[in-house]
User: Fold this.
Amino acid sequence: MSTPEATLEGVSVKSLRLAPSRRRYGELVIRALLQLCALVSVATTVGIVIALMIPTAEFFGDVSIVEFFTTKVWSPLFADPKFGMLPLLTATLVITVLALGLAIPVGLLTAIYLSEYSRPRVRSILKPALELLAGIPTVVYGFFALTFVTPLLQDLWFFGDPPGIFNAASAGLVMGIMIVPTIASLSEDALSAVPQSLREGAFALGSTRLVTSLRVVLPAALSGVAAAIVLGISRAVGETMIVLVAAGGTPNLSFDPAEAMQTMTAFIASAAIGDQPTGSTGYKTIFAVGAVLFVATFLMNILSIRLVRRFRQIY
Amino acid sequence: MPRFKSGLVRMAALSIVLAMGAAACGDDGGTGSGGTSGLSGTIRIDGSSTVAPLSESAAELFQAENPDVRVTVGTSGTGGGFQKFCNGEIDIADASRPIKQSEIDACTAKALKYDELTVANDGLSVVVNPSNTWAKCLTVEQLKAVWAPDSTVNNWNQVDPSFPNEKLELFGAGTDSGTFDYFTEAINGTAGASRTDYNATEDDNVTVNGVSGTKGGLGYLGLSYVEQNEGKIVALEINGGGGCVAPSTKTVQDTTYQPLGRPLFVYATAAAIARPEVQAFLKFYIDNAGEIAEQALFVPMTPAETANSHAKIEALTTS
Amino acid sequence: MPAPPTELRRANAGRSSMADSAFRALMLAALGRALVTLVALIAQVVVKGWPRLNGDLLNHFPSSRPIMAGAQSAIFGTIWVMGVVAVTCVPIGLGAAIYLEEFADQSRWYNRLIEINIQNLAAVPSIVYGILGLAFLVRGPASLGQTVLAGGLTLSLLVLPVVIIASREALRSVPRAIREASLALGATQWQTTRRQVLPAAIPGIATGTILALSRAIGEAAPLLLLGALTFITFNPDGLGSAFTVLPIQIFNWISRPQEEFRVLAASAIVVLMAILLAMNSVAIWLRNRYRRKW
Assistant:
């Protein structure tokens, strides 16, 4: 037996393996196949990078990077084009924060309820009902925001100017609802998978269900819950149709949710199915904005993986 | 311990059955029998989403008489459509504007010859809220003052001193639509020249809703949306230099409604035109252009345009 | 169900603190909010689409006359495309997750890079996948043309990260003790994975599949770029066929001037949700069957 010396926390299951007495070729083949599957994702990224970066490089030959990131006006497809993408960035930020502000609490609370408090029969109906929310086409959500939520907000708005027909608040709220199933369902799976022994230990020590859920089960499921939240954030940042239909097509450097604004994704969508001749600078803006989005989410994901790795519990 | 295998097998069986069922039912539609003409083949059309309803209309009526020809219509946008067109991926491109030089160059680079046909007209209307009782007719200069790139007009009394003090709320097409290109060129002189602080949307229905919900609303959209939403919005008369003219099928067709009437085009590759089913389709399109335009809620061609297109088709089909 | 055993529950019975009740109220409010929205949405759509929810919708093809229009080509197109997505993204996603979780050495930089990579891909807007598919699947190396296969594969790539991430978490949640015991009894890595870990992880994998397929069925923008059509009067007759899908048809109908088309759009939405429910019920059944408590 040739196990390396290591602490229980750090050692992977692999290193505990006994050296096999003869090679099992089937295992090697399977391992290679699985590796191939994992490489599909790498191939996708390489494809995206190639598809995005070449036109982006061309674009930055026409427009300076400084201008791109510092100018405050975005009107690339107008006759006198301006290429400052800050309005798109702030719009994405505002709407994403709004969406997550709704989705994370609602999603987590729902997950805790489904996992810790509800009866199995209730859960078996509620969880699929929630997942139905995830399947509604995003274009439908967009029109729901436009025709139902916006008038509602216009009636109920109580600070500042009431929102116009396009506004960030409506898009953000509806996007939040759309993300709830992702966060709730995946978190619920993570919470349910925490071994019963942990809960029983807590109950045996006299804690209430509330305390057990929040201080024992939730931390133990942190890895899964964090993955659910990061997936939710990713979905929010990358969502196209809802913002296109409900938040409008007018770039606007503002943090006021009652105003209309155009996010990076809304711009990409409307420009890509639009009228620009392919190969023009206006068309290349699609790729430039797409590249910024890609890099921004990359940085965010590195950060989140670091965070999760630090706090994850292995039981 | 529940066995993994049996569940998997069951699921696989279920999906195979579903797929077979779908495939079995899949061939029912579209291939009727008793076609009178014996034409067959597939015609691929793509391009502007404005012109698409016209091509759909044409396709539907044509397929009724030629069941073995399959006509499909896509909406990748005028720009995307031209890209596919020059790549040879489609046979006919719908366009709400003439082909641009850069696109012509792309086609020439691929040695692709094509022909342009006018098929219908569209009238762009300027609309206001029904409770807007003061504005009946606007001149092109007034419109330009409102929509020019540096315009700061945000009140009706700045448009005309006789108008009341009512906030002006603007709605219009997004920069990616042919409607935008045409409006800005006709009113402001250059395609794409426009103020940027208006409610922009690709969907004219949203413009309808916006204007009908705002007393001081002003928007521009296609004529078909005006006709379908009578009571929600009101079209203004436009004075293009020859007096105030209200937009209608008649005034667009006899070109008295200026400058906001625009032609709609289809482009066909030379290779496609060489095929009999495409020739028949294009001939059908032009011969029945009036009926097709009406069904798609557009304005039929002017007599001059009709004659022109007829001549072109004759030349193409006899060569 | 992780409720405390009855003896313990009785002991806790007297302690319903303010915090407990407040928390309960909060949770129910959260759940209620999500459900109310779902109900509102469905109600609005069903009420609007009711007049056209009949056989015509299923039997007719698109038409420029609303009376005659139906969504048969879109319905079959959706079924075909979703078939391709389900068949490709589940095995590949699961395979990748198994590799990353069970076989890969976590300390190697390239495996960590793959992990970051996958999370990144989950955030890429769907339209960028459309650009990717157009460049590499429709044209480019694969040259599949504007077909069901290209559309299905592109959507599959779009939802692959969801499947991988959810499956990884499912695999991760299986206690180590199970694996160690299996290996201690002499099983190989793959035997352990296949017979012990995977069955235990099915519920999480099923959830991931549900979320992935739900996402894919509602996507319109990338398929529009790829060449899904808005007017097609025949059903797909193979993987190499031209096609359209319900979201695109819905989007097209919603922006038409005639009010009748918008009613049609609403009824098509109801059909889409019915298809989604049918699809999800298979996965939900699997999930309930294999659910277990440690």
Summary: Residues 52 and 94 of chain B are 7 Å apart (CA to CA).
